[in-house]
Structures are given as structure tokens and as C-alpha cells.
Amino acid sequence: MPPKAADKRRQGQGGPSGGKAGKAGKAGHKKKAENDFPETGEDWSTGRAAIKSPDQLDLTENELEKEVIRTLTANNPHIPQNIVRFSFKERAYKLVDNMDQTAIHFTLNGYLIHKDSDEGRRQSIRSSTEAEETPVEEEKAPVEASAEATEEAETKDEESTEDAEAAGEGEGGGEGEGEGEQEAEAAEAEEPPPPKAPERKLANQFNFIERGSTTYRNPLREKGLQTDPAPFETFSENVNQWFIYDAYMEELERMEKAKEKEKAKPVAAKKDDNKTGRRLSYVELPVDSLTKVAKAAKIAERMVNLNTYDDIAQDFKYFEDASDEFRGQKGTLLPLWKFQYEKTKKLAVTALSWNPKYKDLFAVGYGSYDFMKQGHGMLLLYTLKNPSFPEYSFSSESGVMCLDFHSDHPHLLAVGFYDGNVAIYNLKKASSQPSYRSSAKSGKHTEPVWQVKWQKDDMDNNSNFFSVSSDGRIVSWTLVKNELVHMDVIKLSADETTMQGPEGLQLQTLGSGTSFDFHKKIDYLFLVGTEEGKIYKCSKTYSSQFLDVFEAHHMAVDSISWNPFHLKVFISCSSDWTVKIWDHTIKTPLFVYDLSTAVGDVAWSPYSSTVFAAVTTDGQAHVFDLNINKLEPLCSQLVVTKKKNKTTHVQFNPVYPIIIVGDERGLITCLKLSPNLRKMPKEKKGQEVKKGPEVEIAKLEKLLSLVREPGSKEEQ
């Protein structure tokens, strides 16, 4: 049968069923369309009116029919077009034309390797060898299955050709169409479904191989050690009776020496108690174990002292003398603690200084002002928390004459000695010797050093301090690495004092400096007091001459000090019984106080510009307040009770309302100021009391304006 007839027969056989299927398909599509468009009462096929936006352009037919050409390119529209680069060849900036137009939207790191790479070849060889090792039976099974599939396909084609012929006969004769259709349907129902062909794996079209990864395994390592063989030595010697005898004798001597050492120890280590019959033993502790408990022992010692001196501590903290209300302007000094050390009873207190960081710690220098009784000296540091024993103790071959704490490094303490040396003690180091010390080679003074003062660090951040001595030299000492470097700042020359030398030579003598003080604000300005009673105003920058000379006292200037608030005022005291207050721009004193005996020391208070204290050789302490009484002291109280004892130095505490006074017997007395001696301005109703340095400066300036001569003008 020709192929066209077979096709027609197939179409004829599938006609009724195909028609039904077509109808069913149309009905399904219609139902779906009805579901897509909900029922709104209108037919879906009817056209709806187009809704235009109000801002839509009205175009003509020609404009609507006009073709608009849009060209799509692969260029990135967001790339900047104004990037310029400097061209070294043309020496000008050029616009960059070819920019990278690639825009990456998605990246993924895979584990794929190229088939032609070494790893790809190795994996392909490995997979081919595994395929060859598979059993032969597995290879035969797909071959048989493919043969059966080809046979079934051939039989199916034959049946289809017979059906096509039968359909052709039915069309030609026009009879028995219904029977032919029924037989065909029954044959189709009886035929079994064709078996599925095995899925064939597609070839690798992209020429890549998928690579599997595994976790990394740390390789095992073995480590072996081999020890060096023990050293050995071959020794040989002949032994006779005399060698054996000598060896025994040496052993006996060693044992006897050991017994003698043991006999010497029990005398100090063991002791029999005859009364109780017990045997006592003493255990000698090593030094290291003692240092471990030193801190705990110090704390326990302070606790015991707080209990012992509890009444004094209560007075220091809370007691205020109520009797001041009935004394008018007068005040009193309340004795608190007394500090004394057994080794310093025969030494005089020659210097006092409070620590700038720890307000309860102060340093005391011990020596002698009698040049006929010079001996050793001591440096002690006491705290108000433990008045019974000093915190630090240093001894020296020569007497300590002066000392000063560094304001920025409170562990550094500068000390001047009677023999002309200066030294620096570092309290952080557990050493009894100073960290720095001058010598004859390093430019020490030839006479006693009466005062030392720390100054600000130099340009190289090296600490430095100044010293004044009776040899007329004012020396600057700088700490450079591990040594003290000295430099003479100025030499004091005594006017009209020349000595007749040999062969008629006139020798100029130097003045003897006894005290000095640096200005609180102007670094280069300082004052020097001398044994002749003169006060020199000097500058660090002028070493050959003085800025000014004050004919201050008739005897040696024992102490000189700038006012901590007012920049022009300073105070001086002398053995000529007087205390004088000066303005450094005026050559005459503003206030003069005669205390009827030699004045040992004077000090300004840190809380008021008009309060100062002085001690005299008759054992009294005097406290003045110029704002209350410009003529007499508010308090004159006997501090030393023993005869032939003199007070030497006084210092105000920077925070607490107390002073410390030292005498010639090595005793330091702590005294509390009564309320009248530290009066503050009273509060007025509705007004705030002003506080601060400006108020103190104005208070002192008001007093000075009353004393200054009307014609004198202030000089800066």
C-alpha cells in the first residue's frame, strides 16, 4: 500500500476519537477563558474603551506610522565618560576612551577543571581503567535488551502496515467500517506497552570535567630524639697503704671541722628553760621571706599606731577651737603629733619639705649649724599615718643642709650637704645610697650648700635643679644618663670687699649665698639672699651682672620666698630679728616686723596670700594675717619647752590646716591652726563668695596700695 493511503487510513481510524478529543479540547479552552475573565455582566469579547492619561501626547497618523529606530548596544550607560589620565608621552592629561564595559551580575566559584589539563587527563584515565575492570556480564545485559527492542519495533511496523491496508479496503468498498474500528481498538488494547529504552548519558559538550573535593587530612609526623652518650673517662692509678691512710685522715679532719661548726650554732639557736623544763629553739628566717611580709607588717604597724594615737587623729580631723570666738582676732596652735627618731636626737632639723603627690608625707634633713661640731647627717621621711617610725631612712657622712622634692617626679629628692656635695635620692629604688652624687671632679661646691630647688626640664627633657652655697656660686645641675653635669649660672661678687694679696695684689672676694627662690611664673627670674644681708635679683640669662640689689638686712638672710599668688611680692627673714615683705619693683620694704630675736625661717601659707608663719630662736612660732592685722601676729606660741633649744624651720601643709616645726634637738612638732588663723571671707546674703587666685591677688594688692608711696608707679 502506498504511504498516502496508509496515512489516510490512520486519519480515518482516528477520526471519531480525534473529533471527540478536539471537541473536548475546545470545551476545555473555553472553560479556561471563562475562568480567566470573571463574570461582570458583559461579554468578554466586547471591546473596552481605552483609558488615556491626562498628560499623554496626541500624535497624528503620520507620527504614529513613523518608524522609530532604537539601537541596543553592549555599552554600560553608568560608566563615567570624563575620566582623564596623565600621558607622560604627550605631557598632558588625556581623556580615556576605551573603558571596561563589563558589568558582572553574578559570579560563582566552581570546582571544574579543564579536560585538557593535567588533572583532567589523570581523572579521565582513572575513570577509563575503572570501566574496563567492570564484569563482562554487565556489558552483555544492555546488548540483549537492545536486540529485543529492535525486534519489537519491526513487528510493530508490520502490524501498522496491515492496519493501513485494511483501512484502504474499507474506504474503497464502503462496508464494514464499524467492525474494522472495533477490531483495531481490541488489537490496540491487547498489545503490551513498548519497553522504555535505557537512558543514554549525553556526551560532555562543554569539554569540562567535574572535580570532587575532600577534606584535608593532616599528615602524620614522626619525631625521634637521640641523647648524647654520657661522658666517660678512663682512670687508672696504683693504690698502696699510704694512699688509703691519707684518704682516711682527710675524712677525719673534715668531720672534726663539721662538728666544730655545729657546736657554735646551738648556743644561739637553742636554749633550755630551767624553770619550765622546756627546750626553746630559734628559727632563723632567710632575708627573702622577711621582705615578703614587709608590706603586711607595715600595714599592721599603721593600724596599731592609729589605735595608739586615735585621740590625736580625731583632733586633727574634727577639732575646732571654740574659744576663738572669745579671743577676738587672736588664734592658737593645737599640738598634734611629735616625730622623733632615736638616732637623730643629737642632730638639728636643717630642712623640711612636703611631698607634692602624697600630702601626708614629708622629708626631714638632719645636720648641725655649728661648724665646730660637724659629723654625720641623716635624711628621714615621715608620714602622718605613722608618727612612731620613719618610712624611709638614709644616712650620710656629712650633715644634710637642704632638700627639695621634684614637682613632676615626686620620687626624686634633691639634697645638699655641708661638705659642698649635692645628691639625688630615688625613693623607688631599695638602696641606701643616692642615685646621683657630685664629686670634686664634677664641680662640687667648696662650702656648705644652703638651698636646692628643682626647675622645669630642659629642652632635652632632662631633669635639672639649682643650688646655692657659701662659696658664692649658683650652679645648675642636670641629670644626663648616669651622671650629674654642672654649669655655673652666676657668681656673687661682694662689692667693696677686696683683700690685700701678696706683692700688693687686690683680690676680689665672692659673696656668700645663703638662700634663694625662683619666681613662680617667670622661669628665668630668681632672688638670692647673702650673708652680708643683701638680696640680689638675678636672671638665668645674665651671668655677669645682677638685675637689682636690695639692701635688705644687717645680718645674713636666712630665708627668702616668693608669694604663691602675687607675682611681685616676696618675703625675707634674717638673724637681725626682722621679717620684711617686699615688692621687687620697689627697693624699700613694704612691711617690716621686729620679732625681738633671730628669725630662723619664714613660709607663706598655700591657702591665703596674706598669711605667713615664722619661727624664732627663742622657741616660738608666729602666725600673721595681713588682712586682719598688719601690725602684730595673730598668734605667738611657744613650741619648744626645753631650755637651750631653738626652732629652726617651719612649713605649711599644702592641703591640711597644719604646720610642722623643727628644732635643734631633732624633734618635729605638728600643729593645727585654729579657725581665727585661717579665716575665709564671710558669705553675704544674696551674694556668692568669690574664690580663687584672683581674689587672693586682689586682697593683697589692696593692702599694698595702702602702703606704697603715692608717687611711686608700678613697674612691670
**Cα separation of the termini:** 140 Å
Question: What structural category do the secondary elements indicate?
Answer: alpha+beta
Strand content: 25-35%
Shape: extended
Poorly predicted runs are 1-45, 164-177, 266-277, 280-285, 711-716
**Helix share of residues?**
10-25%
Main beta sheet: 4 strands, antiparallel
Biggest sheet strand line-up: 7-36-35-34
Task: Give the strand tally.
Answer: 36
Q: Note the total helix count.
A: 12
Mean pLDDT: 75
**What is the gyration radius calculated from CA atoms?**
58 Å
Structure description:
The protein has 716 residues and is an alpha+beta fold. The protein has twelve helices and 36 strands. The protein has a four-stranded antiparallel beta sheet, covered by helices on one side. Strands 8-9-10-11 form a four-stranded antiparallel beta sheet, with no helix packed on it. Helix 1 (3-13) packs across helix 5.
